Amino acid sequence: MSNKKRIHSSERLLNSAMKLFVKKGYKGSSVAEITKDAGLTRGALYCHFETKEHLAREIIKLFEEKYLDKMIAYVEKEGGSPSQKFEKMMRFNVWFAGEHPDLCLFMTVISAEMCGSRNRLEPYLKSVYRKWNEFITGILKDGKRTGAFKKEIDPQMMAWVIIGVHDGVLLQKEMNRETIDLQTYTKQFRNLIISGVRSD
Asked: Does the reported pTM lie above 0.70?
């Protein structure tokens, strides 16, 4: 199999797994269903991924690299004040959720399923969320120190609140996609978060 075909097969498997994990859950999705949806054989899956867990881990890694690492690089590029960095982070969040809704929803759904499960995926998921939290916490600490953000906020706790609201917003968007105007919805999300941290 050529390298190009290998990459294409791998992407098909990742996309099918992501779709099924969101629809049926990680535990409820079988390898047979994933390969059938991807139009590939079980052997093709095991050529790329050792187990279903490995497949899920690669999707989490994809989120970390495509969203988290790129968001951090985008926000840190050219520096700026804490307020400017926070605004850039919010803009990136909205853009990414619009471009990669399935990947964002996957993270929300699998996090809920893995929470307290003692599954081997749980520590990796937690490490990705901690990395996300640490980045937001750093911006909030800088903003609090400069007076741009409210003195009473606890930066680390507020970072968890922001992540929690972010995940909930994505879930509600998916559940109510027929009735939600995306532009208005994302604007309300952005306004809610910014008003919660910015000093008057």
From this structure: yes
